[in-house]
């Protein structure tokens, strides 16, 4: 396996007279992957990004990017990192073209109009190149942020809530842009409130809460390990107790006795196979049913469930 493009060890950030925003975070990011960092508001996502991008000074720990210790050679490494922040931080009276050209030169890149045109066209901003940023819609302003981050051709790109406040159609369009960046070899770290965004695009997922990383895993492996299948079987006649023929299945009877509720397996098909066995067992036991509703857990179900478990603990 190749060396991580970004390696974080023991990263801590404690604000004076305030909370510990990051608590001994360890994290490795692989070259070329899309990594989704999920967590509730205040979990530490933006602080973590700020620490890597030089916007937040850590209290402790180390950050190594491209094999370089950021505390010793920050400027050289930072030139290879792009950031799309949550908030629009640019001169609203500047034109789109000038704002992006400025970002291109900020990290030592020579002025390259052809590259700027390519970026603007890829983000459907070319016809807005001479418009002042203040005149753009919210979605277009978000695209300008992405264009600014891409102007110096970063190898590692942070997207902090990139589709917050944009409509569903534009969100899906941005997903395509992010997938295209990955195809070009850009490594992407994404924070998002839209968990379907992570489910759609991410190779790996990390969950952060209270400044601590709760879990990091391959998206598919996480869903296989923590996902479940839930099936609700509506019966033709009520049951007072679980029949012996169903004793080996993880089922319970609904409050009115008219439903059997199954929870088991995983989110990648194992549970569905067992539900099929369950319906066969019902038929053999002459227990009639009128409907079957089956649902595999999503990444959002896993996320919410995991946070709930940590809260209870």
TrEMBL record:
Keywords: ATP-binding, Nucleotide-binding, Transport. Residues 6-235 form the ABC transporter domain. The keyword DNA damage does not apply. GO terms for molecular function: ATP binding; ATP hydrolysis activity. Signal peptide: none annotated. Gene3D superfamilies: P-loop containing nucleotide triphosphate hydrolases (3.40.50.300). It holds the Pfam family ABC_tran. CDD domains: ABC_DR_subfamily_A (cd03230). This is ABC-2 type transport system ATP-binding protein. It comes from Erythrobacter ramosus. The lineage of its organism: Bacteria, Pseudomonadati, Pseudomonadota, Alphaproteobacteria, Sphingomonadales.
